[in-house]
Amino acid sequence: MDRAFWITWYDLPESGREEYLSWLHTTYIPRVLERPGVNWAAHYASEHNVVPLGGGQGRIRHRVLGDVPAGDRYILLFGAAETRPFVEPSPNRFHAELSAADRRILERRSGERVNIMLEESQVLGPESKHALEDAPPSLCIQLGSFNAASYTDEDGIANWYARWRLPSMRGVPGCVRVRTLVSVAGWAKHACLYEFTSLAARNENFVHYERSHPEMEQWSKDVVKDLLHAPGSPNVAQRIWAASRGSPGHA
Fold it and tell me: How far is CA 7 from CA 41, 128, 181, 182, in A?
């Protein structure tokens, strides 16, 4: 089962965007899927004007820009059973071995940030029939990537996910699956990948779901303030392309 992820966040300029996307979907992604052990690819475009969890601003802190690349308008994910397919060769070495023409198109990315991560835990939601093994994630995702503000906060964050956030998602309508991830390489030590059947399902059922659990709402606020998110995190994004090993790509 896919428990390893190569995740890339980045931005694109308007000029040449369609050429880049065509190249990525029909040339670059198939080439990565040829690597032994890589099972699927999924490409997402982040939403603008996202409705934040709880409906309010100011709950999340972000890493100060400068030392962490800030791209986040596109998210490219690859899945595998283990991290080895993503580190032999590493992303940088793999890209260095591309043709000069391919590297020129790849260089259109800006603010590129990469993590290689492993699944730490998983829960299935009411729409778990859509959670297929060795297949791309759902049409809509929310992906948060972050570190604890201090190492002393790690214990409380782990406890909150295990006792509240993950179990509570089993009952949220429209939720397919939620996975917590830990890093092998990259700035963010932690990530949480939510899958929803649609953006509308996420906005309707997830944004305010804690209101029906007021006894947990303050705990969530206390934990979230101890997180230091990557620029733009958490991203809410809709899938624009997906492909699996041996299968043609599709939107």
Answer: 10, 23, 11, 12
Task: Give, in order, the Cα–Cα distances in Å from 49 to each of 52, 117, 141, 235.
Answer: 9, 27, 15, 11
The DSSP 8-state label assigned to residue 250 in this structure reads B
Q: Using an 8 Å Cβ cutoff, are 148 and 80 in contact?
A: no
Are residues 155 and 217 in contact, defined by beta-carbon separation less than 8 angstroms? no
Residue 157, amino acid: I
Q: Are 114 and 69 in contact (CB under 8 A)?
A: no
Query: Using an 8 Å Cβ cutoff, are 243 and 29 in contact?
Result: yes
Is pLDDT above 80 for 147? yes
List the chain domain ranges: 4-244
Where does 84-230 have alpha helices with state H? 84-87, 91-96, 100-106, 154-160, 166-168, 199-205, 214-224
**Cβ atoms < 10 Å from Cβ of 148:** 18
Query: Which residue bears the tokens 């980045």?
Result: 10
Minimal CA–CA distance to 199: which of 232, 238, 170?
A: 238
Place of tokens 């999340």: 60
Here the tokens at position 247 are: 């299968």
pLDDT band per the 50, 70, 90 thresholds, residue 248: confident
Instruction: From the options 3.20.20.70, 3.30.70.100, 3.40.390.30, 1.25.40.340, give the CATH code of 4-244.
Output: 3.30.70.100
Query: For the whole model, what pTM was predicted?
Result: 0.94
Tens digit of pLDDT for each residue in 109-129?
999 999 999 999 999 999 999
For the segment 39-56, the average pLDDT, to the nearest whole number, is 85
Residue of 190, 201, 223 lying closest to 59 (CA atoms): 223
